[in-house]
Design a protein that fits this description.
This protein is 50% helix and 16% strand. With 735 residues, the chain is α+β, with helices and mostly antiparallel strands. It folds into six domains: 198 residues, Hypothetical protein af1432; 146 residues, Beta Polymerase, domain 2 (2-Layer Sandwich), CATH 3.30.460; 76 residues, Beta-grasp domain (Ubiquitin-like (UB roll)), CATH 3.10.20; 76 residues, no CATH class; 85 residues, no CATH class; 75 residues, ACT domain (Alpha-Beta Plaits, 2-Layer Sandwich). The strands form five sheets. Strands 1, 2, 3, 4, 5 and 6 form a six-stranded mixed sheet that branches. Helix 2 packs parallel to helix 4.
């Protein structure tokens, strides 16, 4: 033991032990104090607890922390036992079972929490994040563990002034700023929060700290005298006006002043509010605003205000409920002083959580934490086990819907409770999610559907062969992941759709067959597919053979041609839609093979020629003639194979009185209004009649097939131009 404590440490140990005994008072039986002393001596003799990076004796460090917890947080009893024995337990000198049997479950729970959070803390290199602070708060089964961690960091910061270990001091000071001070602020420990920030600035920016300290060269007493001199005339005037009030005054901390210099990008001399005064009025509810403005008038009558620094949260409170009047005035000796004016009720709201004082100061947090802060402050003021249990329960309720998860590098992410490995993968990046095949969680291989818990360290396993699956929508729980899965599936479908369609069209070209969209759509419906996407999906998956599709297409085309009723024409002039004697005598004539008229012919159903089209005749097997358009899909094949059957044909005379059926294909955006617009345009055209219309919609587009009766190509072209101008129409073509 003599080797474990230096002579100086022995003297300090005796003084600290006495101080702790007095502070703990009756919270621990004297017998427990004697046992604690013996157990610490036994651990010291074994030299089991190790000194930290600053060479601090671990037993002395823990007693100092225990004194802070007892004096400044009012936590006593088993909490102090847990602080002093957690190092002997960590080093193997004692077991948790021994602690529990001698001091109770409460003390053992404190030690268990300290060890657990210590391991969590050591795991993450990104502890400056808001997520890590919330993870600590949610991970701690007993909130007193968090308070002990804050007290321990205050203890360390107070005693590393003269250390030669500059690198570790820098690290400890940085952590005090971005982890422990915000935690202290969240928990309402404003005094410790300011101390941590000031000490951190002192160690990390030595020159800045002492520069500001030099600027504030007055002693505390002189600053207090200044504030008293500032307040006194205000006090007299407020009293003379019959107002009931309290006035508080303070000088801002060095760190707070440095923050303003940085934030406002200005010099020390331009910082307005080095001093702050708070006037708290005891007002009746109906007189609150009136008396606040009355106090404001009294203050600004006495001291020159800066109008640019008026903040009126009285007329329109902040969204978090904060109400107050803030004004900066020129006090004696030309010093700027901020004055805050509010009522007792407003001050209670600001201090007790509705305005969430820590949030007002810029420390962001989670919704619902205001009530928790109130519970925390009340627990600190009345530090009995019941109030602590209430606070712990509230904490558990607050964070029960969240989990905090680490990456292998220590980055921390927040997810809803119940989130799976796949949720986490998509949360990091959609590409990672799409390739995810599983994960390693805390060193164990798990499946995609594994649910995550707070503190889990997750390494996603990927494979380039992996693609999103439909059943992933049943695995993910977050809307973010679900939307990304849906998007990935839709993109895959689109790629497969295009690939399958290109494959089919290529086969058509290889067979030298003309592809007709309308015929294909009817074939797809006839085969029982719900939509075009399903049809092409089966081609992409290999479930549907492309050659079989082509055979069925030819069969479909032949069936349609055979099924259609063919309209016989003796000559064009002998046909009239109205069938009136006058119209039957029109001069529409089709001249076949030079100047031959009156020959029986039929208009081919594959291309539906009309008056004005460039046409030719084709002598069929039974001797009749079918008239085809020159650009008929079958024209090339007929010329190559049956050139000797081709005869010339041309239109003669006029088209009046005769109408021909043709089919138009319209593609556009899927909107019921667009069909109405199309039919409206057709109905207004003279000499054109709408006979039938069929609509098929898919993926936001519609494909419409229109059968119309039209007299000639001139009217047809005019109609096509008008249809193409309709909003939403993308394509109009003649079949």
């Amino acid at each position: 033991m003599d080797d474990f404590f230096t002579q100086k440490e022995k003297g300090e140990l005796r003084a600290l032990y006495k101080q702790l005994s007095l502070s703990a008072a009756d919270s621990l039986p004297k017998g427990d104090f004697r046992k604690l002393k013996g157990q610490l001596i036994a651990a010291a003799r074994r030299e089991a607890p190790r000194r930290d990076c600053f060479g601090t004796n671990p037993i002395i460090r823990d007693i100092r922390t225990a004194i802070i917890v007892s004096d400044e947080m009012s936590l006593k009893g088993s909490c102090l036992v847990g602080i002093m024995l957690h190092e002997p337990v960590k080093s193997g000198c004692m077991t948790l079972g021994e602690v529990e049997s001698e001091y109770g479950e409460d003390a053992a729970g404190i030690i268990r929490g300290l060890v657990k959070l210590g391991e969590l803390y050591a795991r993450s290199p990104v502890i400056e994040s808001e997520n890590f602070r919330n993870l600590l708060l949610s991970f701690a089964e007993d909130m007193r563990v968090i308070l002990i961690m804050i007290a321990d960091r205050v203890n360390v910061m107070r005693h590393i002034k003269d250390t030669k270990n500059e690198e570790d001091r820098q690290k400890v000071a940085d952590e005090a700023t971005y982890l422990y001070a915000p935690l202290a602020h969240k928990l309402g420990l404003y005094k410790l929060k300011s101390e941590l920030e000031d000490l951190s600035l002192k160690y990390t920016q030595h020159d800045t700290y002492y520069f500001i300290k030099g600027k504030l060269n007055e002693t505390k007493a002189s600053r207090d005298r200044y504030i008293a001199a500032f307040i006194e005339p205000i006090r007299k005037k407020l009293a003379a006006a019959g107002l009931k009030f309290d006035i508080k005054g303070r000088t801002k901390s060095i760190h707070s002043i440095w923050n303003k210099i940085q934030k406002q990008k200005t010099s020390f001399e331009n910082i307005y509010d080095l001093f702050a005064i708070r006037v708290i009025l005891d007002s009746e509810p109906e007189k609150e605003k009136l008396e606040c403005w009355q106090a404001y008038s009294i203050v600004t009558d006495m001291y020159q205000p800066n109008p640019k620094r008026l903040r009126d949260w009285l007329s329109i409170p902040k969204s978090n409920g904060y109400e107050s009047l803030h004004i900066t005035v020129m006090g004696p000796e030309g010093k700027w002083v901020e004055v805050q004016i509010r009522t007792r009720r407003m001050d209670e709201i600001a201090e007790r959580g509705l305005a969430a004082h820590w949030r007002y100061k810029g420390v962001k947090g989670e919704s619902g934490i205001d009530e928790w802060l109130t519970s925390m402050r009340e627990a600190l003021e009345h530090a009995d086990s019941d109030s602590m249990r209430v606070m712990d329960q509230f904490k558990m309720d607050l964070y029960e819907d969240e989990v905090f998860v680490f990456t292998p590098k220590g980055d921390l992410f927040k997810l809803p409770k119940g989130a799976t490995v796949l949720d986490f993968a998509f949360h990091i990046h959609s590409k990672l999610g799409c390739k995810c095949v599983g994960a390693t969680v805390n060193g164990k291989n798990v499946q995609l559907k594994q649910k995550l818990n707070s503190g889990d360290q997750v390494e996603i396993t990927t494979s380039n062969a992996q693609t999103p699956k439909q059943d992933w929508l049943n695995i993910v729980t977050t809307s973010k992941a679900r939307n990304k899965v849906r998007q990935a599936l839709k993109e895959m479908d689109a790629r497969q759709y295009e690939f399958a369609k290109e494959t089919l069209e290529r086969k058509f070209k290889n067979r030298k067959m003309e592809y007709d969209e309308g015929t294909m759509m009817r074939l797809i419906k006839r085969q029982g597919f719900k939509n075009v996407t399903e049809f092409y999906q089966q081609i992409a998956d290999g479930a549907l053979d492309v050659n079989e599709v082509l055979d069925k297409y030819v069969e479909q085309q032949r069936r349609e041609n055979d099924a259609r009723e063919e309209l016989p024409y003796r000559s064009a002039e002998g046909y009239s839609l109205q069938s009136t004697p006058e119209e039957s005598a029109k001069e529409d004539v089709l001249v076949i093979d030079k100047n031959l008229k009156g020959i029986d012919f039929k208009l081919a159903k594959c291309c539906h020629p009309i008056y004005g089209d460039d046409v030719f005749g084709f002598v069929t097997v039974n001797g009749g003639i079918k008239v085809h358009r020159v650009d008929c899909p079958n024209a090339r094949q007929m010329r190559e194979r049956f050139g000797y059957r081709i005869v010339k044909a041309r239109w003669a005379g006029k088209s009046e009185g005769t109408q021909y059926p043709i089919t138009l294909r319209v593609v556009g955006h899927d909107d019921i209004g667009i069909v109405t617009n199309i039919t409206s345009v057709i109905s207004k055209e003279n000499g054109i009649t709408l006979r039938a219309i069929g609509i098929d919609s898919n993926d936001g587009l519609f494909s419409g097939t229109l059968t119309i009766m039209v007299s000639d190509t001139g009217r047809l072209e005019a109609l096509l131009k008008k249809l193409r101008t309709i909003k939403g129409v993308k394509q109009v073509s003649r079949n």
